[in-house]
Amino acid sequence: QVQFVESGGGLVQPGGSLRLSCAASRAIASIYAVGWYRQARGKQRELVASITLSGTVNYLASVKGRFTIARDNGKNTMYLQMTSLKPEDTAVYYCNTDETYGNNNVPWGQGTQVTVSS
Q1: Does 93 have pLDDT greater than 90?
Q2: Percent of the chain having pLDDT more than 70?
Q3: Taking a C-beta distance cutoff of 8 angstroms, is the pair 98, 33 a contact?
């Protein structure tokens, strides 16, 4: 069973940038689709972006053009580059498999807090 550990979150001003990293406990080359999720206080968790082994990417409409997802199978790491951050991007960000392509029942980690505020 793979486990993910998120890092890179923090406090950033509106319009700023952050790069989130996700380290996997085992090879992710065997995972077809990985993704980033986020959950804001009082709201449901939502899929922000995902990427497959074939390079297919999907983004939440509200982050298109601002966020970029990437995966490095050799380093067993995935990333989320976030730019032009907005207060509404404030949430705990998690990495996991993209359940759209099948539920692998991977436990959720602690996530990493992203706070966009002046």
Answers
A1: yes
A2: 100
A3: yes
